[in-house]
Amino acid sequence: MRILVTNDDGINAPGLKVLEAIAAEIAGEEGEVWVVAPAFEQSGVGHMISYVHPTMIAELAPRRYAAEGSPADCVLAGIYHVLGGERPDLVLSGVNRGNNAAENALYSGTIGGAMEGALQRLPSIALSQYYGPDNARSADPFSAARAWGVETVRRILAHGDWGGDGYTTFYNVNFPPVPGEAVKGLRAAPQGLRPGVFHSVEGMLSPGGRRFLWVRGGDQTVRPAEGSDAAVNLDGWVSVTPMRADLTAHDALDPLEAALT
Description:
- By secondary structure, the protein is α/β, with parallel strands linked by helices.
- The protein has a single domain, classed as Stationary-phase Survival Protein Sure Homolog, Chain: A (3-Layer(aba) Sandwich), CATH 3.40.1210.
- The protein has 6 helices and 11 strands.
- It has helices at about 15-25, 70-80, 110-120, 145-160, 230-235, 255-260, and strands at about 1-5, 30-40, 55-60, 65, 90-95, 125-130, 170-175, 185-190, 200-205, 210-215, 235-245.
- The strands form 2 sheets. Strands 3-4-2-1-5-6-7-11-8 form a 9-stranded mixed beta sheet, sandwiched between helices. A two-stranded antiparallel ribbon has the order 9-10.
- Strand 5 (about 90-95), helix 3 (about 110-120) and strand 6 form a beta-alpha-beta unit.
- Helix 1 (about 15-25) packs across helix 4.
- The longest helix has 17 residues, at about 145-160.
- It is globular, with a radius of gyration of 19 Å.
- It starts with a strand and ends with a helix.
């Protein structure tokens, strides 16, 4: 199996090393793991692509590249430049430092990389590690991802829906904020929405008197609806969420059609 690996935390991120180890076990001794990751952190860029300016890419080691672009750029670079059009069998994006559950999924560059893989009609999975008081300051905050990453990917590959002529399904995985030995198992879960939680900005003055704005995320401990991704994560489960790039609100089409005609 040939696996293309990317992330949004950057080529030197510790979560990328975790994912490389997961990918190596999935690929097997006869397989190949190719890494094309952003040269610098790209958190929060979503599915952005560098459409109006070029992307510099550098080979750092055999099958290991850094690109000055987004995770989606890296997937495109991997497929069409690094692999020369020889398509990978699987795209893995992550393991992100922090969760990409609930509303975070809409901003996530990690998910953007997997989404681009799906748009290229490739099986694709995004993986993220929830941080919380039980793991954030531990010696290995990625313990849950290390312990459950291979099993999670294998089960998705075995049972996932990869077909269809339209927008194909990709999968968003969030490992819970607990040590690996405390993980309860896997749960299929819809994307949640943390009530009353919003991204915002905070202004700061530089020493030179110029004003800058920092984007701030909301409270990650707020529970969304029971059974949704962040809720099961907070209860100690790995969440697996099937996603598609189709943004249509299908349930609103018929009422809108009736109102417009």
